[in-house]
Amino acid sequence: MQIIGVEVPGGSPVLSFALGHGDDPYQVAWEGGYRVVRPLSATGTVEDLTVTLQVCEHGRPIVPRGPQRIRSTLRGDEPVHEPVVRQRLAAYALVVSERGLLATEFSSRTAVPGMWGLPGGGIDPGENPAATVQREVFEETGQTIEILRFLDMQSDHWIGHSPSGVIEDFHAVRLIYAARCEAPIDAIVHDVGGTTASSRWVPASSLREVSWINGSRALLAKHGQQLLRSLHHTRAS
């Protein structure tokens, strides 16, 4: 994945780097002298993906913080030899409708069974991230959605078991979209037997009652209420 930084949308790049294994794009940009203002676009397919960020010079002393912190989901007594190194590019969505926000429950094939997150998943070969979101949302929840905009980007790095049981040095790079569902139906998982156990619409008044994974909770705190309010304003107008 290539990261491009521009000071104004459509402007010339002032920052450019390939996202290495375990790199946090926000940290790399900061250590290059720039603060990320907001993500602008994600173009291309998984083989040649380019993410463009709006940035501005932060003007502060640069103190390298070193590699992104690596978590471990292994047991304390579990031996670790040479984990398989894997960077996974994935796309997810904050999907809103008149019924609330769309959520998916992690299955027993994951490290967090019973916890809840956002619909989405890995970008397939030849696929662009927006198409990934639409496909994954339908597979995991049965909903047809409209992509509104590229919203955010997350990076997470850990060592743990993959759904197939292989121990991996895993770098998750998540592209987050805002999306709307104009005709919500009761959620249903079509991709049975995968990493999604169930899915549902969560009313706006009940968002805090859900056991969200940390990444999803952070995104909801940052963007959730604004998206839900914008949906109500659109319908009112």
From TrEMBL:
SUPFAM superfamilies: Nudix (SSF55811)
InterPro entries for the chain: Nudix_hydrolase (IPR020476), NUDIX_hydrolase-like_dom_sf (IPR015797), NUDIX_hydrolase_CS (IPR020084), NUDIX_hydrolase_dom (IPR000086)
Hydrolase in keyword set: yes
Keyword Amino-acid biosynthesis: no
Keywords: Hydrolase
GO molecular function list: hydrolase activity
Pfam families reported in the protein's UniProt record: NUDIX
Family of this protein: Belongs to the Nudix hydrolase family.
Protein name: NUDIX domain-containing protein
Source organism (scientific name): Propioniciclava coleopterorum
